[in-house]
Design brief:
4 copies of one chain form a homotetramer.
Chain A lengths: L4 H10 L5 H12 L5 H10 L3 E3 L22 H15 L4 E3 L1 E2 L7 H11 L2 E2 L2 E3 L22 H21 L3 E4 L4 E2 L7 H18 L5 E5 L9 E2 L4 H11 L3 E6 L9 H10 L3 E6 L16 H17 L7 E4 L8 H20 L3 H9 L3 H13 L3 H10 L6 H7 L2 H9 L9
Parallel strand pairs in A: 1-2, 2-4, 3-5, 5-6, 6-8, 8-10, 10-11, 11-12
Antiparallel strand pairs in A: 7-9
Chain lengths: 426, 426, 426, 426
C-alpha cells in the first residue's frame, strides 16, 4: 500500500471547496497586526510529528480489546502505515520505535523502507514495564528502582541495548518511561527508590553517544496505583539535572493529576532549558490516550501558545521531539492519527496567530480582559484554510482524512494483511 | 488443597498473644454506653462476603500482567480457593460467578464442590463488555445500548442465559455491569442510548424468576473514556425504578469521580429502599481495584457507618449482597483477599461500636465537635480482638493470614497446579 | 448612564471590518447541508440570558476582595448596568434578583426602570446560606434541612416571602440553592437531612402560584466541605419528582466534581422533562465562577449541543431559564459579562451548525471518526460573523466590548457613583 | 482566662478510666519488636506545634461567616487563647504571627505575655494577598511577581518589615505564601512572572539574618483560578535552590491537586534537605482547611511515617516548623484546635510504632503483603493511652477537650470579651 504524489495531486485538484477566499480574508485580517499568514503556512508545512510504532494497531484496556482488520504485523508494515500518513499529510515524517517490539532483523533493509517513505528515526523507547518471555530478571517490583540490584542492572542493560539499536538506525535520543512505583503504602521506600533510579539513569546517560539526548518521562499513576517513582515534572527535572546537560524532561499530556496547569509546566521547563520531548494525546479522566484535541482543544492551544513562545524566546531550550502517544480502542488507528495530526496543526497555527506584541502590552498593563480577547481571537479563528494551503504546498492531500477514505486505504490493507493480524503494542 | 477444622483449631491453640484481656477492656468500656461487645462478636461472626470467581488469579493493567503460580484453571479450583479462604475466615461463604468465564460443565458436581466448602452462589455476573470467540454480534460499540438492535438482542439473550445458569446453581440475583458508552463526543446520542438501555434492562427484568433481584451497577468511566451510559447512582436509580421493585442499584467503591461522598449515596439509596449490592475495593486515583482498606480506611468506616445505620433503620431496603471486587496485580490473590476481608470486618466492627444514641443527640444539638468525637472514638478503637473472638467462635483461624502462610497454602497450590496456569479474569 | 440606539447604530456604521463576505461564505457552505444560516441568525438574535443582580460588583474569595469603581449601590443602579449590557448586546434582557439583597422599596418604580431598559424579571433567588442582621434564627447548621424546626420554618417562610416579592414584579419562578450540609463526618444524619429538605421544599412548592416553576440547584461542596444535602443531579431530580410537575433541576456549570460529563446530565434531564434552569460560568478547579468559555469552550459547545438537541426534540421539557452566574474578581464586571455573553452565543451558534442528520446517520453506523468530524466541523467554524449579523439586526452593537470601551462606560459610572460604592453580593 | 497547673492535675486525678492497663499492653506488645513505648511517650511529650494567630476566630468562606462569641480582639488575647491550648495539651508552645494582622504595639509587653504562657515565636507570615487600607500599591494583579516594579518593591519591603518585627520578637523564620497568579489564560506571562518571583525572593532572602530560614509555600489554585506562580513543590524547590541554603519548601496539606501523593513529596524533599515547614489541616475537595485528621487520617499517618523516617535518617534536613493551618467555620476554634492537636499526636505516635527494621526487610524482599501489614498494624493500634501518658507526664490534661468543656473556657471567654468581637483572619 503506497499512495503516490500523482494520486494526491489529482485528488487535490478535484477538491470542490476552494479555501483561497477564506485564506485571503485571514491574510488581510492578520496582516494589519503585522502577522504574516504566509510565514505561518511555511511553518505549518515544516512541522513534523513522530508516529510511535505501537500506535498503528487497535488499542485496548484491561477489560479487553476489539481487533481491527489490516493491522501491521511487522516493522516494515508499520513503516508502510506511517508512509501512508506521511504521504497524506507530509507531517508524519518520523517514527519512534519501541524495543523489544520493534527490533529490526535487517537494519539496512529497514532503513531503506523508511527512506522510501521519507521517514526518519526519532526517539527510541525502552520497555522495562513488562517481562519478556525468557527474561532473566523480573520487573514485577520495578526496574531502574528495584530493590534488587540484578533487576536494576538488567533494566540498565536493556536501555543500553536500545541505544545501540538506535545508533544503527540513526536515532539521536532515548525516551525513558518508568512504570516503577508501588501499589500499596509501605511497599517502597521512597528515598531508596529515588536514589536507585537516579543512579540507574546516570549509568544509562553515561553510555549515550555525545550527540544523543535522554528524555525522562513522568506520570502520577498507572500501572501503579499508590505511587510512581517519577511522579511529576519536579522529580523528572531533578533527575535530568542530576544526569547532565543532555537529559531533559518529557511531557506527556495525559500524565497529570486532574486540573493540572500543563502549559505552566511547559513554560517553566523551557525557561530552564529542560523541555526535551512532548507526547500528544487527550483525556477527560486519566491517561485516557484518546485522539489529540478531541476533549480539550483549548487547553491544547494554550499549551501550544507556550511552546511557540518558548521556541521563539528560549534559545536555551533544544528543539523538541514531538510524538503522538494515543490508543485507538474504537477507531481505525490511521484515521485516528489523521485526526490527531489535524488537531495538532490547528492548535499550532492558532498559537502562531496570537498577537504577541499586543499580548505583552496588555499583560504589562494588567488589562486582563484584553489578554483574554487576544488569545480567544486567535483561537476562534477558523485556521483550516492555512492547513490546507500548507498541505497543498508540501504535496500532501488538502483533506487527508477524506483522501484516506477515498483511496480505500483500510480496505486495501485488509486485503493485503487479512483481518487477524495484530500489531504489537498495548 | 483443603484446610481442616482440626488444623485450624490446633493452630489457634498455639496462638501466643491472647486477645482476651484486650477484649475484656473493650467489653467494659463499651458496656458503660450500653453497647454489648458480645452482640457485636456475634454479628461479625455472621457476616459473609462473596468472592468473585475472577479474583483468584493475578490481575493486570493494559500495560501487562505479571503471573503468579498456582492459579486456579477451572471452576472447581476456583471454588477450592474460596474454600481455603472460607476455612480460614468463615467470612467468605459465597461465590459470585461470571459468565461465560464460569459456565459449569456439570452443574451437580459443581454444587457438590461448593457445598463441601460451605459456599453458596451469590449474584451472577453477565459479560457484555468483551466479544467471545465466534460471537455472532459485537459489543465494540455497546451492548444493551447499541444502536444496532441485533447487538442489543444478543446482549439481552446473554443475560437471560446467565439467569438460567444461575437458577440451576441456586443463585437469586443478577448483577449487570455495562461498559457501554463512548470514547468521543458525538459518538453516542445520549438519549437514544439511555432509552435503549432502559428497554433492554426491562426485557431482562421480566424474565427473572420472582424471587430474583437485579443489581444495576454504575461507573463514570473506563473502559469508555468520554461517557458511560450508566454514569452515576442517579442514572442507576432511575433505571431501577423503571424496571420494577426487585431492581436495585449496586455501589462499587471504585466507580466514582474524585472526592465523591459515597456514604451519602449509600444513605440515600437505603432510605429509598434501593440499595441492592455492594462491591468492596479501594483506590487512590480511579477504579484502581486495590485491597479493601489499603488507601482510605476511614472512608470505608464512614460507609459502614451508613450501612449499619440503614440495616437497622431501613426495613424498606433488602438484605445486601456483599462482594469483594479487586484486582491483584502484585500480591498473592488469596493473601490480598484475606487482607480485604480483615479490613471489611474491622470497618464493620468499628461502625457497630458507634454510640448511635449519643450521636443522635449531638446531631440534634448541632454539637459538631462531639459528633466527630463519637465517630472517631469508634474508629480509633483497636477492634482486632473482636475479630479474633468472632473467628475463634466460628471455627476460623484467629489470624487467617498468618495461618495461610504457616500452612504453606500457596506452595501447595503451585505443587498441585504448576506455575503456568492462568485464571480467567482481567 | 444610558446608551441610545442612535449611538450604537452610529458606531456600527463606523465598524471597519465588514463581516459580510465571511457570512456569505458560511451561508454557502452550510446551505449545501441544508443548514440555513439566516435562520440561525434569527435564533441567535432571540436568545436572552438573565443577569443576576449580584454579578454587577467585584467578586472575591475568602482571601479578600479588590474593589472596583462605579459599582451599583442600589437595585435601580443594578438595573441600569444591565440596561447597558442589554443595549450593547440585546441578549441581556432579563434580571434575576436575590432576596434580601434586592428587596425593592418601590415596586412600581423598579418595574418602570426595568421596562425602560427592556428588562424582564427572571427567576427569583432566595438566600438561606447567610444570617441577616437581626435574623431570628440561624442558618449556621442548615436551613431547609436543619435539625431545628424553627430554623427550617424560618427558611421556608423566607422562600415564601421571596415568591411574594417575585409575584409583584412579574417573575414566574423561584431558584432554591441550598448551602446545607456538613463540614465533618457525623455532623449530619444524611437521611434526616434529606427528609427535612424534601418536606421543606414541598411546603414551599405548595405556596407557589400555579404558573410558577421551582428550580432546585445542586452542588457537591462549598461552603460545606464534607457533604452537601443536594449534592448532585440525582438528588435534585429525586426532590423535583417528590415536589411535583413544576419542580425542576437547575444545572450550574461549576457545581460538579472533577471531570463530570455535564452534557450527559443535561441530555438525561431533558429526556425526562426535568431540566428547568441553567447557570453559566466556567472553571478549572472547583466552583471558580470565572468568565463563561474562558477555560473549557469545547465543553460549553458540547453542552449546547445537547441543549439545542433537547429544545428541538424534547417537548416534554419546558423552556429554559438561562442565567450567567460568575464572579468578577479581577475584571470590570460589565466587561466580564460581555465576554460571557459572547462565549454563550458562540457556543449556541456552533451547536446550531451541527449537521444533525449526518450525525444521526454516523451514530447509527457507529462511524466514530465521522461523528467527531461533524461536531468538530461546527466547532472549528468561526461563527463571529453570525453573532455580528444577529446583533446588527436587533439593534445591538456589532462589537459590544469595543463599544463599551469606546463609549467610556466605566469612566462615566465612576463619575456618577464614585470609586467606593460596593454592590451587594459575594 | 488562664488555666493553672493545679486545676489540671486535680482534674487528671478525677479521670475515671485509667489508661494504664492498656498502656502496659502496648508496652509489652511492642517491646517484643524492640520498640520502646516509653521512649515514644517521651517524644510525644516533646512535640510542639505552632498555632497561627489567625486560627483563633471563626473562619468563613466567600459565602459568609458565622460568628462565634468570645473571639480574641487583640494580639494579647490571641496569646491568651494559645495559652489555654498549651496549658491543656503542653503541645501548643508556639505562635506563628501574621503581619499586618498582628503588629505588636508594645513588643516587650507581648513577649512577656507569651513567656507567661510558655509560648515561643515560630515562623512569621507576610501578607501580600490583600490590600491594606491606605496601601500605596495594589496586589490585585500580584505582589512579588507583579509586572509593575513598584508593586513588587512594595511587597518586598513588606516582607523585610515582617522580618524586622520577627527579629524583635525572637522568631527565626519567614514563611512566604504567594497568592500571585492569574484568573484567566493569557493574563500572565508565566516566564516573566516566575523570573520576577525568583528575583523578589532573592532580595528578601538577602536581608534575612544569618540564623533565619525562609519557607516558600506552594499551592495549585485559590484565590487565583487559572494559574498560581508557585503552583507545586517542584517550583518551590527550584526557587529555594535559587535563593540559597536557608531557603526551604513548606508543605501545606491542603495545597495539592486531587489525589496527590503527598508523602512521596515529603520524602523527596527531606532526602534533598529542603523540607522546612509543615502546615497541618485536612480536606476532601480543595484547600478546605478542616480539622486535622477529620477526613483522611490514614493519609496523615502515611505522611508522618515519612516525617519520622526523615527525622531519623536525613541529617541533611533541618528541624521542621510545624503549624496548624485550618479554618473553623462551624466549630469553636479552640475545640477544633484541640481536635487537630489530638489527631497530629495520634498519627505521630502511630508512625513511631512502625517496625522500621521489619519494614526494611519486607521491602527488600518485595513482600508487599507484609509491608502493608506492618504499616496497618501500627495504624490500627489504639495509641490514645500513649498520648494520655505523655500529657500526664508533661503536666497537661489527660483529656484536653473534656477539660476544656469542664472548665467552661468558652463561657468565660464570652463573659470576658462579649459575643461580638471578631478576630483578624480569613
Amino acid at each position: 500500500m503506497k499512495i503516490s504524489t500523482d494520486q494526491i495531486s489529482a485528488l487535490n485538484k478535484k477538491q470542490e471547496d476552494s479555501y483561497n477566499s477564506e485564506l485571503d480574508f485571514l491574510r488581510n485580517k492578520f496582516a494589519k497586526r503585522g502577522i504574516e499568514v504566509d510565514e505561518i503556512i511555511h511553518k505549518v508545512a515544516d512541522f513534523q510529528v513522530a508516529i510511535p510504532s505501537w500506535a498503528l494497531g487497535a488499542g485496548g484496556t484491561r477489560f479487553g480489546r476489539f481487533s481491527f482488520g489490516g493491522e501491521p504485523a511487522s516493522l516494515e508494515q508499520k513503516l508502510d502505515d506511517i508512509g501512508v500518513l506521511h504521504a497524506l499529510t507530509k507531517t508524519a515524517g518520523a517514527v519512534s520505535l519501541h524495543i523489544p517490539w520493534d527490533i529490526p532483523s535487517d537494519v539496512k533493509a529497514i532503513k531503506e523502507v523508511a527512506k522510501s517513505h521519507g521517514i526518519s528515526f526519532d526517539a527510541m523507547n525502552s520497555n522495562t514495564f513488562q517481562d519478556q518471555p525468557n527474561a532473566k530478571e523480573t520487573y514485577k517490583f520495578g526496574s531502574l528502582s528495584n530493590t534488587n540490584a540484578a533487576s536494576r542492572d538488567y533494566a540498565i542493560q536493556h536501555n543500553k541495548d536500545v541505544i545501540n539499536i538506535g545508533k544503527e538506525l540513526g536515532s539521536k535520543s532515548l525516551t525513558v518511561w518508568l512504570a516503577d512505583g508501588a501499589n500499596f503504602p509501605g511497599q517502597n521506600n521512597f528515598q531508596t527508590a529515588l536514589n536507585h533510579t537516579e543512579n540507574s539513569l546516570k549509568s544509562i546517560y553515561k553510555t549515550m553517544p555525545e550527540d544523543w539526548k535522554m528524555f525522562i518521562e513522568y506520570k502520577p499513576y498507572e500501572p501503579n496505583f499508590y505511587s510512581t517513582v517519577i511522579q511529576d515534572w519536579g522529580t523528572s527535572f531533578m533527575l535530568s539535572n542530576a544526569c547532565g546537560e543532555r537529559a531533559y524532561t518529557l511531557v506527556d499530556l495525559g500524565h497529570h493529576l486532574p486540573n493540572t496547569n500543563i502549559e505552566q509546566i511547559v513554560a517553566t521547563l523551557m525557561l530552564k532549558g529542560k523541555l526535551g520531548g512532548f507526547h500528544f494525546n487527550d483525556s477527560k479522566y486519566g491517561d485516557d490516550d484518546v485522539t489529540v484535541g478531541s476533549i480539550k482543544p483549548y487547553a491544547l492551544f494554550l499549551i501550544f501558545n507556550e511552546l511557540v513562545y518558548g521556541m521563539k524566546n528560549n534559545p536555551q531550550n533544544p528543539d523538541l521531539s514531538w510524538m503522538i502517544d494515543a490508543s485507538h480502542n474504537t477507531k481505525d488507528p490511521l484515521e485516528d492519527l489523521l485526526q490527531s495530526l489535524e488537531a495538532i496543526l490547528i492548535a499550532y497555527t492558532q498559537a502562531l496567530l496570537v498577537d504577541q506584541k499586543a499580548l505583552k502590552n496588555a499583560q504589562q498593563e494588567n488589562d486582563v480582559v484584553k489578554c483574554q480577547e487576544i488569545l480567544q481571537d486567535a483561537y476562534r479563528t477558523d485556521v483550516r484554510p492555512v492547513l490546507k494551503a500548507a498541505r497543498e504546498k508540501s504535496g500532501a492531500a488538502v483533506d487527508p482524512l477524506q483522501a484516506y477514505r477515498q483511496f480505500g486505504v483500510r480496505k486495501d490493507l485488509i486485503k493485503e494483511r487479512g483481518t487477524k493480524t495484530m500489531a504489537t503494542g498495548l
